[in-house]
Design the sequence.
């Protein structure tokens, strides 16, 4: 299983901190899985101009191709102006319209306050849904108060990370097994 | 210009041909891949075989990316012109955006002479854009480059003397481009992929249209063709004067399940190499439906599908894409033979017009 996490901020540490913890948890629960974190702080991306994703160069192409090869994805974003980051939307814009078909995906949102709790459900998920992802019902919302530096300090978030990793693995395994069975029987 | 000027005679029934993108890929079942020299020989043999089994048209596309040998497609078409005698030949498509229209026209007018008046040109915008960098063009000019250059290309084909100025090339003043095609002019088509906008522009310019259909219901592609004909009408042209070509994947076997099973690896692996991701297996399985555009199945099913498309589209030419994704050459030749000997006679029978209106 190939799992890719996208930390969709080019500055700050909250989104990357939560996704790093989730990456570790996924690796514990699924030691055989390949779990890759794409931290946009460490990557130089250009803006999407509509070309085929394989025709970008450097990090832009690396990010697009890594996402296209994933079986499961976690898209993480800080809240900027009551919405997801432009950097994360740009990553999604690099990809073909049906890029997430047959891939399991969910959202992790980090924010300074509880006010933007619905950004995952009302904003990011509709985009992932349009791109044909198999969406997990659960998402994760992490506030300023749950973090201290690059540490998660509230038990609630630690346990919700465990639960989200379980959900992601369960749905991905189930979907992949059933898809393989369906495809074997198509013709 | 009428149908006849495009060398199309609808009374003889639907024209049937083949087209290739000139890809060179390993056979996913064996890993074997022809050398570049071998693959070019294969392309030429596809054309001679198409002619031998009575097909009307052979087209070769231009591609500049890895896994293709058709960069200099006009040169290969030159060799094909001399290896064949009757079959019409052309490009499918020539990337107009990244060449000088004068040079394109010189090449294809020469091809028309080499082939004794059998050459055609289909201009397109390229579905992949790597060649913009390779050939020194700015991707930001994607639309504008094509429209300007295609417009000049049409003028060069239609007029002996051209006065023209534009943004991407030096102006022409009362210029004649030599050589002239055998009969003074030659058919130039516009290749259209997905967007309706491109079909509308083909109608605006009054040029015949070639539509590539990968997969999907017939009704979806009918919209593109309807939009094209409406656009022709709106711009003062008579749609009855303009031929339409449809192109799509073709694979025939003893029965539908065998066809689907045998063809899927080629399409899936080929798409991965050409587009970066495979062909959805469930979408592919749907192509067994008579209302899906892909011509797959036993020859009878293929005939039914093609006749249904003819009823819906009213096109004048169908071109089969047969050799994609590393399908072994002997299998490609077998498919061409099936198209020419099993599919073509029946389709011609039901699509030609008979004196007195009687079908024999």
Sequence:
């Amino acid at each position: 299983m190939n799992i890719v996490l996208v930390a969709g901020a080019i500055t700050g540490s909250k989104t990357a901190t939560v996704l790093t913890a989730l990456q570790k948890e996924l690796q514990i629960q699924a030691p055989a899985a390949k779990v890759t974190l794409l931290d946009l702080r460490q990557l130089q991306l250009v803006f999407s101009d509509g070309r085929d994703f394989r025709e970008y160069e450097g990090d832009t192409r690396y990010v697009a191709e890594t996402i296209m090869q994933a079986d499961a994805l976690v898209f993480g974003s800080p809240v900027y102006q009551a919405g997801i980051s432009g950097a994360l939307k740009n990553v999604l814009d690099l990809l073909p319209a049906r890029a997430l078909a047959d891939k399991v995906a969910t959202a992790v949102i980090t924010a300074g306050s509880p006010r933007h709790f619905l950004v995952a459900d009302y904003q990011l998920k509709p985009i992932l849904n349009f791109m044909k992802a198999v969406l997990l019902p659960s998402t994760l919302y992490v506030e300023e108060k749950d973090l201290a530096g690059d540490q998660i300090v509230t038990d609630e978030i630690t346990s919700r990370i465990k639960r989200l990793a379980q959900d992601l693995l369960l749905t991905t395994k189930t979907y992949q097994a059933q898809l393989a069975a369906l495809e074997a029987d198509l013709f | 210009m009428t149908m006849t000027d495009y060398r199309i005679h609808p009374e003889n029934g639907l024209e049937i041909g083949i087209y290739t993108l000139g890809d060179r890929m390993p056979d996913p079942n064996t890993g074997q891949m022809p050398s570049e020299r071998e693959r070019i020989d294969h392309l030429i043999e596809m054309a001679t075989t198409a002619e031998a089994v009575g097909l009307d048209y052979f087209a070769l596309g231009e591609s500049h990316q890895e896994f293709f040998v058709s960069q200099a497609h006009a040169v290969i078409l030159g060799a094909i012109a001399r290896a064949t005698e009757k079959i019409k030949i052309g490009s499918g498509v020539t990337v107009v955006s990244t060449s000088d229209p004068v040079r394109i026209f010189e090449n294809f007018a020469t091809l028309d002479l080499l082939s004794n008046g059998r050459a055609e040109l289909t201009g397109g915008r390229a579905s992949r854009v790597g060649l913009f960098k390779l050939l020194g063009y700015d991707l930001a000019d994607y639309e504008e480059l094509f429209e300007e250059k295609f417009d000049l290309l049409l003028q060069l084909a239609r007029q002996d003397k051209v006065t023209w100025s534009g943004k991407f090339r030096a102006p022409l003043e009362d210029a004649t481009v030599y050589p002239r095609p055998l009969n003074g002019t030659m058919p130039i088509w516009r290749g259209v992929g997905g967007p309706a906008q491109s079909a509308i522009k083909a109608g605006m310019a009054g040029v015949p249209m070639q539509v590539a259909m990968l997969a999907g219901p017939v009704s979806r592609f009918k919209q593109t063709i309807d939009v094209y004909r409406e656009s022709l009408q709106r711009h003062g042209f008579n749609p009855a004067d303009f031929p339409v070509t449809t192109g799509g994947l073709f694979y025939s076997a003893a029965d539908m399940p065998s066809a689907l099973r045998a063809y899927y690896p080629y399409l899936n692996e080929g798409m991965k190499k050409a587009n970066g991701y495979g062909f959805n297996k469930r979408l592919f399985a749907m192509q067994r439906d008579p209302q899906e555009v892909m011509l797959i199945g036993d020859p009878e099913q293929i005939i039914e599908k093609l006749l249904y498309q003819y009823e819906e589209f009213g096109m004048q030419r169908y071109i089969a894409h047969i050799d994609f994704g590393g399908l072994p050459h002997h299998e490609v030749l077998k498919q061409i033979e099936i198209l020419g000997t099993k599919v073509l006679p029946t389709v011609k029978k039901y699509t030609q017009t008979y004196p007195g209106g009687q079908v024999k």
Remarks:
- The mean pLDDT of chain A is 97.
- The CA atoms of residues 47 and 154 of chain A lie 36 Å apart.
